[in-house]
Design the sequence.
């Protein structure tokens, strides 16, 4: 799986071969999907490389996402 954090901190995950933005299920509603998951959220932690597994862990408020490739476009 591939993930991307764009220059604005928004999280995208690979779904059906395309990177798709992820929306917050706690702030957004199905009728009004406006709040994207990203590093603006205090529960979104910095991704870390998992030793010996060649994957990166992305910690969000409710789950940990393991990806084979992380594209991080944020400025330092």
Sequence:
């Amino acid at each position: 799986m591939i993930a991307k954090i764009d220059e604005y901190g928004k999280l995208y995950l690979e779904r059906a071969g395309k990177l798709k933005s992820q929306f917050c299920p706690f702030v957004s509603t199905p009728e009004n999907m406006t709040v994207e998951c990203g590093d603006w959220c205090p529960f979104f932690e910095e991704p870390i490389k998992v030793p010996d597994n060649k994957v990166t862990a992305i910690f969000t408020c409710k789950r940990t996402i393991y990806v084979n490739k992380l594209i991080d476009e944020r400025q330092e």
Summary: The chain has one domain: 2-72. The CA atoms of residues 47 and 58 lie 5 Å apart.
